[in-house]
Specification:
Elements: H1 3-33, H2 38-45, H3 52-58, H4 69-78, H5 88-91, H6 94-114, H7 117-128, H8 131-137, H9 143-160, H10 170-186, H11 190-206, H12 210-213, H13 219-237, H14 251-254, H15 258-264, H16 276-282, H17 286-292, H18 300-322, H19 331-359, H20 372-395, H21 407-440
Helix pairs in contact: 1-6, 1-7, 1-21, 6-7, 6-8, 6-9, 7-20, 7-21, 9-10, 9-11, 9-19, 10-11, 10-13, 11-13, 11-19, 18-19, 18-20, 19-20
Amino acid sequence: MSKWNRILRLLIILFGAIVIGVISCQIVSRAGHKLLWFDEGNEILNSCSESYSYMLIRGASAQCSPAPLYYILQKFVVSYVPLYGKNILYLFRAVSIVSACLSLAVLFFGLTKHVGVGWGLFALFLLNNQGIFHQFGAENRPYMLWIFVFSATLIIVSSLVHIPWNQVTIASKINLAFLALALTLVAGGGMVQTVGFLATFLVWEESLNVRQWIKHPSFKPLFLVTAVSCAVGIYYAVQGCLHHDALKWDLLRTKDWTLVGSVMSLLWSTPQGTGFVTLLTTGDWTLVRKFISLSWPIQGGNLVTALFSFFELVAVALPFCLWNNRKNLPEEKKFLLSVSVVSIIQICSAVVIGVLVATAHYYFIGRVFIYLIILRAVLIICGGYFCLSWMLEKWNRGSANWSQQSPLQISLIAVVVLGVSVSLYGSHKALGNDIRSFQST
């Protein structure tokens, strides 16, 4: 890498760190103006009033999801916060705020290390445009800690899964086991996700030949970690209430399939009124015309949404196209193919979680599936990388290796920088509107 490329890389990393700081400050500002609501107050008054030992043994009994990790961390913070003063809104939400900042950092630096600094910056752009990320980053609820642990697990699994098991360091194996247990302890659905993450190692090596999984050297340690995580997850699951009354958000009782559409929109964004679930429930086939009209250039926002959706489709198709050659790919593409495989397995895990949520008559709403915004971001990055690499190879305008900055690649990074800047301005305006709304209520 030349001197100028190194300088450019450092400048973009510095810009990315500034972006993380700005987004974090926006979340802090939102937290400082948003009043505590019922679920937040219930958590502080009930769950955090119990002893550490009680929460470890019985879980967060006042919560529907009694996985105790978040509530233990929250109790530690609340124990040192005076129950008066203006700073209570910030400090009671400190765990979520820090988790949001760490989630951004994990994705940015993880993708920068394995793919390139431009793609790490692109991940910040995609997350900053998710209103649900800003919303729960400013609430003392466990969802943002779940996002952080999920993101960290996704990055470490994707970076290790294509490495022969006997070459994985002891430290990496310990980190993997720690994150798997943390994912189980942070949310009820984390147990299902842990099984998916650890199964990816065996799928990568032996495809779907389950009989060969048992013979693989990684099977015993992975099975041990999976067994422990499942035992812990099931233990805390039975401590909570197994049947709920989710009112209008109860999928099975209401048969309101638009609830599925609202959850799917976290993973697959479509312009309002063109969703597949809406098409099925209304029978309005003019929606097809609306969807086709996305290609009309005047609809800039719709065109970007359609492009991102195309990238997601490409990312999902990658394992089926490159599977037989997966072990001979360059390191960057091997990592991204691993991300694609991990994401597909996690989408399957989300379906399992959705079935469990529906049968328990729990709230079938976006925040229960908030991790889908991470899957959407990494799938868009995977698809975008392979599409642009293919263009570079076909047009001979630069190397397919993104570590060597060509004029076209630098131009694309400039576009991402501009997009991130515009996105930050947009989120700043949205924050101002929300603050005025908070002050008027």
